[in-house]
Amino acid sequence: MSTRYRVAIVGAGGIAAGRHMPALRDHPDRAEVVAVVDADGDRAAAFAAEWDIAHHATDLTAALEATRPDLVVVCTPPAAHHDGVRASLDAGAWVWCEKPPVLSLAEYDELAGHERRGGPYVGYVFQHRFGSAAQTLRRQIADGTLGRPLVGVCHTLWYRDHAYYAVPWRGKWETEGGGPAMGHGIHQMDLLLSLLGDWREIRAMMGTLDRDVATEDVSIAAVAFESGALVSVVNSVLSPRQESYLRFDFTGATVEVSHLYGYDNSHWTWTARDGVDPAGWLPTTDLASSHSVQLTAFLDAMDRGERPPASGADGRRSMELITGLYESAITGRPVFRNELEPRNPFYYRLDGGGLYRPERAEAAR
């Protein structure tokens, strides 16, 4: 029998109202929102009134003590993730944190020390891996139905105008952690990694071509996986025709998905190689990727006292790939996954501690 958990929301912005509250309301028998916390007291009060939440506050520590939530949902800007997650874990609450998880591998690993066996654990919002089509493909890869993975494409081609970066924390290494690789393409890269597993080597380039930011606004990478598969990865905020596109070529089939911010089965195609029978390949249920679907898996893990998916080593994969991408692009050399350790300056900050200087792009404008 499922438990009904007390939930606190930290950060009363658009992602909390647009995604997390509807997802929590989809689980009325399993989740009750008892508090909302935001640095802006008026915004916290307005959010509480809109969603009929009993407690609102500006201080997380005080709210944790007053309301004793079982689960904290962190929806703040990226720079505040680490402290919010740590305080919540230390108070004994499980945590579901928006992407990007934190600003560095060092922060990610430090938070692992605040988890305990059997919970509380922190998991991260990577909803695209939970749709039924992705789950079907994951099973097919595991059992060899489609053959070996050989070639892949993982492209996040989005558009964010100059006004988007007027928000003070965006486009800065210190507060966003990185550019579109960190804040936008991370969703598709997590889906890629959840399907193909660990990578071995990455070679990347990036540039600040048009937006007035300290980070990149586009990156391109070639990634070699432990399986031997080779994948191209592109992350852009400069693409007027927006698309999130992943393609996987196996020895027996090609599988593709094209969408923007979420998919259902209609966005996916399976194409069999000549002579291969595709009978039974398509998903038998149509579960769209969504916060609600991932929340179901998270609450199930809480019921069992088990680490949720997209946490621990599983949640770390996307941070590893992004760290390697930035290191390769900034240093101009290939980077191997086993190099991402505490001796490496990119372990602590994704620009290597101020190594990225987009002067050439600035001079060209």
TrEMBL record:
PANTHER family, per the entry: D-GLUCOSIDE 3-DEHYDROGENASE, UDP-N-ACETYL-2-AMINO-2-DEOXY-D-GLUCURONATE OXIDASE
Domain GFO/IDH/MocA-like oxidoreductase, first and last residues per copy: 135-252
Name of protein: Putative dehydrogenase
Annotated ranges, domain Gfo/Idh/MocA-like oxidoreductase N-terminal: 6-117
Organism, scientific name: Pseudonocardia hierapolitana
GO molecular function: nucleotide binding
